[in-house]
């Protein structure tokens, strides 16, 4: 018995000694000096497994344990905040241009790049601890497309001018953020693996259902971003192609060299009876002058009805840059005045305008009473009807179309499937799809019933009463809109020298699109030129 007890005691002592020598035992675990891992274990309610490692599903197994990962997340959140502030500035600049932030292009492209930047950063922040190869691949594709966009903008002079430093900064920042998201995801994946090896003994290859859902959602969103970036790149390519289209005339800096407007003149200065013949100044309506309105003027020039005419594009139309916001009809009239002065054009002038362009012409006339010797208005907009184009619904619709215009869905479809040309997109039937044109329409909408209306009402009070006046109206428009007909009649009283008022049968709002409309317009223009010549002062050639 004694021997057995002693032997048993000895065996027990040996067993305890053996247990004390095992570093992974519970007693050794309790007595060892605390380190980062044991502190995590002490703070965690779950106990480690028998080998001293944590369960892979334990919340303590996180890449956030590494200061480098936490620092990356802090930077990512900081970049998100910076991008949001920039996004707000760009959104405001569409309506009111902050000093130094005016974009001579539409401003919708830089806004779209910033939206894409915020989208990438949100995905990175929300799914920060769920790195995946699929996300890195999709984000890499986005980064490549953005890099191509940056190269196109910097390489094409016209695009570089239109986008300006704001657009360039936006696309560069978007490219940098896309690359940052790739690097961040890769580093987080490394940190996750490192912490799993340290705290669980092996890297974890499986994912929980929650992690799989996170990866799926993130991949879906980044795939959508790929489609958006691809459409934007394609639209930018079309813009680069359109920038090669030659123009007649020249671009002239106006408003303190903030932007350029396009002005072109056809014909030579001529004199009749010692008097300088009036130059016709064309002001388009709802479309660029080059879209068939100028063609009618050219036909009148060839027929000898007029000897010389000039046409221009209001800011945002055709080859003209967008003006800073807000922009009223009076500001357009001032831009035209400056462009004519810088190009050396002098009166006398006969103003021929259509639709909404008649508002600008009337303001221009009131500010050049001595030089304007005749006014011809073609189905003109009345100041009392400006509220129609200033409706909030129309404004929101224009803003929404502007926001998605960088995708260029209509423009790409027209180019690929309908054979639309550069001419169609720059000043033709598809010009309304461009971001510049949409912004110009939005600018008109925002101030039509306020600034522009006040300017044209003042112009009416100033207008010289003896200036010869011709009004040509659309019969279709008058028959379908009694208020329009009433206001057309009211416009015949702008001056006391009404040469004629014609309501052209079967003619639409764009009267010149019918043969009868063009015939009446050319006939009345000839009469206006003769009436205006009686008002000209003799000028030596």
From TrEMBL:
Keywords: Membrane, Transmembrane, Transmembrane helix. The keyword Transmembrane applies. The keyword Transmembrane helix applies. Residues 1-39 have a biased composition (Basic and acidic residues). InterPro entries: AB_hydrolase_fold (IPR029058), DUF2417 (IPR019431). Pfam families: DUF2417. This is Mitochondrial integral membrane protein-like protein.
